[in-house]
Write a structure and sequence with these properties.
Strand order of the largest sheet: 1-3-2
Largest sheet: 3 strands, antiparallel
Shape: rod-shaped
């Protein structure tokens, strides 16, 4: 321990931070903050901090719960508490603003998705109306029989058409023969000497 620290201890009583916190009736962290701000005096010996309290302060504040004059301590404690509360309020306000921004973004996304889904539903409904209804299994059997019936009908019409064409060809051949015969007769003529 150096001479300066010894003089300070002799002239004023120094206690470690936790003991000072008990004497003052505040937390250890509040005691450290007060030491940093300079509202409490202290010194360091062998890497350990000691708080210097007046003997009168120590006598009037022997225990934290006892009745004593703590108006100065309470105002400093209130100041520490107010700073802590204000810091917490500021942090919460920033968090609330951030969350409100996220909520606003998510609402916009939800609105866009809802509109997109509505458009898709409208398109699907339009396409569904264009698709013809497929026949059920009961309706397919009559369709097959109708198909066979139509095939038979077409085949009979083709056969009838072929018969009509053959009849026409036969008549044409007869007409052509008659024409040929009449030409042959004209060549022979009615002159007897031309007969061969």
């Amino acid at each position: 321990m150096n001479v300066l620290a010894k003089k300070q201890i002799d002239s004023k009583e120094g206690v470690d931070i936790s003991e000072a916190a008990k004497i003052l009736g505040i937390s250890v962290e509040a005691t450290r903050k007060r030491l940093q701000r300079g509202s409490l005096q202290g010194y360091k010996v062998d890497d350990r901090w000691y708080i210097v309290l007046d003997v009168q302060d120590m006598k009037s504040r022997t225990r934290p719960g006892e009745d004593s004059d703590t108006s100065g301590t309470e105002s400093e404690n209130d100041q520490d508490t107010n700073e802590d509360v204000q810091g917490a309020i500021l942090a919460y306000q920033q968090m609330v603003e951030s969350l409100q921004g996220e909520i606003s973004f998510l609402r916009q996304e939800l609105s866009a998705r809802t509109e997109e889904n509505r458009r898709k539903d409208h398109i699907i409904a339009g396409l569904t109306q264009r698709i013809p209804e497929l026949p059920s299994a009961d309706q397919q059997e009559p369709a097959e029989s109708l198909k066979h019936e139509l095939m038979n009908q077409v085949q009979s019409e083709i056969a009838a058409t072929v018969l009509r064409l053959e009849e026409r060809d036969r008549k044409l051949m007869e007409v052509l023969r008659e024409i040929q015969d009449s030409k042959d007769q004209q060549k022979k003529g009615w002159w007897p000497w031309r007969r061969a």
